[in-house]
Amino acid sequence: MADSSLPQDALFLGFDSSTQSLKATVLDANLNIVAAELINFDSELSHYKTEGGVYRDPLVNGRIVSPTLMWIEAFELILQRLEKSSKLDFGKIVAVSGSGQQHGSVYWKNGSAAILSSLDSKKSLVEQLNDAFSTKESPIWMDSSTTEQCKAIEEAVGGAMELSRLTGSCAYERFTGPQIRRLFETQPEVYHNTERISLVSSFMASLLIGGYASIDHTDGAGMNLMDIKLRAWSETVLKATAPGLKEKLGKLAPAHAVAGPIASYFVERYHFNKDCLIIQWSGDNPNSLAGLTLNTPGDLAISLGTSDTVFGITKDHNPSLEGHVFPNPVDTESYMVMLCYKNGSLAREDIRNLYAEKSWDVFNKHLQQTPPLNGGRLGFYYKDFEILPPLPVGFHRYILENFRGDSLDGIKEHEVQEFDSPSEVRAIVEGQFLSKRAHAERFGMPSPPKRIIATGGASANSSILSLIASIFGSDVYTVQQPDSASLGAALRAAHGWLCNKKGNFVSISSMYMDNMDKTSLNCKLAATTGDQKLVAKYAMLMKKRIEIENRLVKKLGRL
Question: Which residues belong to any copy of the Carbohydrate kinase FGGY N-terminal domain (predicted)?
Fold first, then answer.
């Protein structure tokens, strides 16, 4: 590819360290996938006894963590599998980057830098890093135990809107700053015995360079700690979070920067080329943005995973009390805007198990045999504490009598305990996407979008994609690789390598702009908007849903 200047025999490796699995994608110089592997934590590392990749603390409400060593063991396992199953020649890989579940944090014990820098290639990483952490449990994005810390941080900096102006988000329980403050308050000995705090992304990059990797600007914005305009740690928020924190966080770096050369451990053990570059890792959603080639403000992406996210691009940072703003990982001039919903695939799976015989085929049949608008049945399903809206665990079902879709006049609403099975299935899917559309519009995202690109596991479900198209009033596209995060990480590895070679930032689109249809990045149309009258009726149903949602927040909300 002439525009990309990538060496024709080169390979680019991208990882995605997510909640439930570790994935790897390898791209060639033409940006086509040549290898991919996946390690599922629960099934393949069952000795850690995780459920969905996590531990739910039975004693502390909302506390959810993952074993740090499990991520290391998965990393070793996937490298072995790439070598044996995929017959990958690591010597041809010229750059590696990665994606980590956002907000999760790792606590390196005092003295661990020396361990990292002197790894013995004859021994496993797990064996050598077993004692390198001041706590072996990493708080992750699903954690909601830090409400008090969120309130305290917001109060200390002058309120929620001021924190949003400074950092891109008001305080959220899953964000790393509140997590660090809680650790400092409840386990001060752990905090004081910590020399470096990494995000999941910078933690994995640290393994690869044999030293502490910087946190990148984009993932750093998901901590409630970084001044989003200056791209530097905010002294105001650091002071409100914990003492001596700046030294424990290290420096920040652009997402396209080189974190360092690959450590000799991987050269000797796996035969990587000693000149292989490790490009800064970033968060999973930012990497998905790269993998979906989202580069137009009118585009919208919907990621359907353990959590569901809706994200797009904007030129400006406008403070808001909901949603998030991050620096765009592949463009130094724009921002990424995002809405996050904790109850994604796991909530859909719960309804599948309860009402669809634990079968996605039955789930889809129920979806297809029920009419759009579900006869006025609206469901709110929160298996875990929800982020948007801020509601606790609970299930709420309503029937709207006399609802026809053209008006809310004369509607009688009453709450029920349960729907019939097919209606339950439609209620969760319709409800989730009505909520997403409403919050996206309230946040200022385009309505209707020019196009929607869907990714994540559920993007393979054509019934769900058709419903998204009808609710949002926009055509829906999908990408060749459902895991856009590891694909985006491999693309970012190539982009970082190219920026380093040129000695300055270059547009990522220059690598694929003229040859998109010949790469693994190409999107295909999966669902069309269809009946505009139905789109209008869904807009009316959305208004009623938000009216009920606002009442629930007023009655039960945590904020």
Answer: 12-289
